Amino acid sequence: PCAFAALVALSFSGAIGLTFLMLGCALEYYGVYWPLFVLIFYFICPIPHFIAKRLGDDSDAASSACRELAYFFTTGIVVSAFGLPIILARVEAIKWGACGLVLAGNAVIFLTILGFFLVFGRGDDFSWEQW
């Protein structure tokens, strides 16, 4: 029951984040679809975590070099996703209002991804590995 509610909440917040992204692209005043390139960052964001989980040791050590490298790459991906719309707005490829909507969508989507790993990333009976 609790996992079902978390899944519904995460899907709802993901839909809100994608709505912000689409509004930044599709509103007639903005009308440019360059910000959709942040979708690439959404898809590659969890990949370092998956690789570190697969390659890392199963001990519960406080720190692991593989896990720390995955955090580093994930941080770079997230910062790049926030930097892309700012650069596009700075070179006037998109308007600043569209940049704001895309940044709001980025915040919601990345918090949703983080929430997914916090809720389903534990090694208990109901985990993301079953999906």
Automatic annotation (TrEMBL):
The chain crosses the membrane at residues 33-51, 71-88, 94-120. Pfam families: Vps55. One of its GO terms (biological process) is negative regulation of growth hormone receptor signaling pathway. It is found in: Endosome membrane; Golgi apparatus membrane. InterPro entries: Vps55/LEPROT. It comes from the Eukaryota. It is a multi-pass membrane protein. Keywords: Endosome, Golgi apparatus, Membrane, Transmembrane, Transmembrane helix. Signal peptide: none annotated. The keyword Ubl conjugation does not apply. One of its GO terms (cellular component) is endosome membrane. Belongs to the OB-RGRP/VPS55 family. This is Leptin receptor gene-related protein. It comes from Copsychus sechellarum. The gene is Leprot.
